[in-house]
Amino acid sequence: MKTGFYIKTVLITGVVLICLYFAGVFIKHVTQESHFKKFTAKIARVIDGDTVVLDDQRHVRLVGIDSPETNHPDQPVQRYGEEAKKYLKQRIEGKTCVLEYETTNEKDVYGRTLAMIFFDGDNINAEMIKQGLAYAYVKDPNSRTKDFVVLENIAKKFRKGLWMDEAGGQVKK
């Protein structure tokens, strides 16, 4: 009789623990996902390799990347800046894209929306790094950009773009 009681107790305890575990996983997933919002917009123009303007005139900074400067008032044009801008223009200018931003880190100090841009299933932010046209930017952390440093290291290893001669985007001479 005692054996049956112990077996039932162990089974019930096990089921309760499993339910609590999966409830915790579900809550974590729902909570994390709710920090991200998506919207669709047309890219009106590309300003440089990491900034675009939407049809509604909102400025968007591609989160997690920093491309070489092309039109910074205090800095000269940097190597691969024009290439980064050209690549981004060819990929998304005039096209409707999906943008995703983190509600806890929505704007930068200039009021631009910090977002991931997706087009044709590609994460354009990640593509910029993979092509060696941008650096991984870790000052505005986003839980979805944590792999960008790895992508940058791969671009370095294969000497893509900025990393072709290990200069890393120094000023044009």
CATH class of the largest domain: Mainly Beta
Order of helices and strands: HEEEEHEEEHEH
The fraction of residues assigned to DSSP E strands is: 15-25%
Query: Globular, elongated, flat, extended or rod-shaped: what is the shape?
Result: elongated
Distance between the termini: 88 Å
Average residue-wise pLDDT: 86
The low-pLDDT segments are: none
Fraction of helical residues: 25-40%
Number of helices: 4
Number of strands: 8
Structural class: alpha+beta
Question: Largest sheet, if any?
Answer: 5 strands, mixed, barrel
CATH topology of the largest domain: OB fold (Dihydrolipoamide Acetyltransferase, E2P)
User: Strands of the largest sheet, in order across it?
Assistant: 1-2-3-6-5
**Total discrete domains:** 2
What radius of gyration results from the CA coordinates? 22 Å
CATH architecture of the largest domain: Beta Barrel
Folded structure, characterized:
- This protein has 173 residues and is of the alpha+beta class.
- The protein folds into 2 domains: 1-30; 36-163, OB fold (Dihydrolipoamide Acetyltransferase, E2P).
- The chain contains 4 helices and 8 strands; from the N terminus they run αββββαβββαβα.
- The strands form 2 sheets. It has a 5-stranded mixed β-barrel. The protein has a two-stranded antiparallel ribbon with strand order 4-8.
- The longest helix is centred in the first third of the chain and has 32 residues, at 2-33.
